Amino acid sequence: xxxQRRTFTSSRLSRRPKPSRGSTKKGRQRKRPKEVALAExxxxxxxYLRLAVDEEIVITRHGRPAGILIGFASEEDWFVYRLEHHxxxxxxxxxxxxxxxxxxxxxxxxxx
Length: 112
Description:
Distance between the termini: 85 Å
């Protein structure tokens, strides 16, 4: 009995599109987060904090996602993150949206 070797060819549809050259998009591009074992992060945390400024780092424990490491390039980034995740701020935003849908609020042209 001989083993047959299978050859795999990817179809044109399954290939990822290549990014266009000279893209005008600025800021972070969304890409798949990097997965790193907890032991590696513990061994070199400062390295992964530097990497986390540009991309999210998923920390795995026994091969399963256990947490995420998010880096900040500046104090302003840290402030924005805290604001976006602050429960009281999010509640106020939701209340404002509900009021606007109900016809309450001040039009922007009247604010000036």
